[in-house]
Design a protein that fits this description.
This protein has 226 residues and is α/β, with parallel strands linked by helices. It folds into two domains: 2-119, 3-Layer(aba) Sandwich (Rossmann fold), CATH 3.40.50.2300; 126-220, Arc Repressor Mutant, subunit A (Orthogonal Bundle), CATH 1.10.10. Helix content is 41%, strand content 21%. A hairpin with a 2-residue loop joins strand 8 and strand 9. The mean pLDDT is 88.
């Protein structure tokens, strides 16, 4: 899941970004409204968290503009304005939720989860391929009944592969979905994480499932499959 944070207060922005990344989300950030609108109109995100008052262009103006263009991304406003009229104005402009500063980090994360669930109501809670299983609700992974411990990044990488299996996923898609869009799709970073993931899910006595297709990408498949 990729989230855009738009906040001109660097301390708040870094705090929110760190909290989201700790939960396994891919996060991009910017600090003014004009750049935010350009990013939202030209790149795909699963959620945007916007400060209401921003340099160059405020949050209300951004939301109105992207809604007019048919962009339906969930929007969560952050604002120090606590009057009912301010909240109503933000929601009427096209935002999906409104959180007043200062806010609790656990409440922010709960609202993020709620908005993402609302956007993807038919997402299955368990992903499977052969004897490899991922529980998205509990954030657990197992193979043939054996629990596998993954980092947040490895978890999201495996999730992407499971959602695509048996079709391959190339490096460009992986870097877009799992890392910042600015990363070079040929970076060795992808190979490093693939290798770590391969070592963890390839258990003794079980056939390897994670394979590299030269010039194409990576896929989950049984070794006997062509």
């Amino acid at each position: 899941m990729k989230i855009l944070i738009v906040e001109d207060d660097q301390k708040v922005r870094k705090h929110v970004k760190g909290a989201l990344q700790a939960e396994g989300y891919s996060v991009e950030e910017c600090e003014d409204g004009e750049e935010a609108q350009w990013l939202l109109e030209n790149y795909s995100y699963d959620l945007a968290i916007l400060d209401l008052m921003l340099p160059v262009k405020d949050g209300i103006g951004i939301v109105k503009q992207i809604r007019r263009k048919g962009i339906s991304i969930p929007i969560l406003f952050l604002s120090g304005r606590s009057e009912v009229s301010d909240r109503v104005h933000g929601l009427d402009a096209g935002a999906d939720d409104y959180l007043i500063k200062p806010f609790s980090t656990i409440e922010l994360l709960a609202r993020v989860r709620a908005l993402l669930r609302r956007r993807s109501p038919i997402t299955p809670s368990v992903l499977k391929f052969e004897d490899l299983e991922m529980d998205l609700t509990r954030r657990t992974v197992s193979r043939a009944g054996h629990s596998i411990e993954l980092t947040n990044r490895e978890f999201e990488l495996l999730r992407l592969l499971l959602e695509s299996a048996p079709n391959p996923v190339n490096k460009a898609i992986i870097t877009e979905k799992i890392w910042d869009r600015c990363f070079d799709s040929e970076t060795a970073l992808v190979n490093v994480h693939i290798n770590h993931l391969r070592q963890k899910i390839h258990l003794p006595g079980l056939p390897p499932l994670l394979h590299t297709i030269r010039g194409v990408g990576f896929t989950l498949k049984h070794p006997t499959d062509k």
